[in-house]
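re: ur question from yesterday

yeah so i grabbed the chain u mentioned. its 172 aa long if i counted rite. heres the sequnce exactly as i have it in my notes:
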Amino acid sequence: MMNFSLIAIALLLCYLLFMSAPTHAAEISSNSAKLQRPRSYSATEQVELLRGQMVKYQLRDRGIKDERVLTAMSKIPRHQFIDSSWQDLAYSDRPLPIGHNQTISQPYIVAYMSEAAEIFPGDRVLEIGTGCGYQAAVLGELAQEVYSIEVIPQLAQRARHILSQLNYQNIN
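ran it thru and got these structure tokens back, copy pasting raw so excuse formatting
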């Protein structure tokens, strides 16, 4: 008889819990509506976030100290210098193809070379091998004037177009 009483009480408790569940579900639902949902980022905000992470983790954390280089690289939209099929990797620490068997150097290498060059605001810089123009843009942020030479006409034309769109008037 004792086992039957315990089973009956257990069944009664289960029934009561089941019947009260919709009330709790409604409370949970109304409470979750009060919670802040993570906001979604615009494409521009996503790119800025990725660029900021690139500067922090790939450059600063690996020893790049020149604030002018770090500022330049946090400003320049690297994704605009590469083909759209590679743009999801634009801020990864790797070289990417730009066509004609050429690549855009990985961000760390661009920063390292720029820092090692010790470029001052009044300097004039000669860059050999414009490629897509990304390094020229970094140099353009650091120097008064940049002269960049590219032997592949298609790359030179594309770099000139991108740099013009980004309003770099000190890069020739």
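noticed a couple things. The chain has one domain: 44-165. also The chain is about 55% helix and 10% strand.
anyway ttyl
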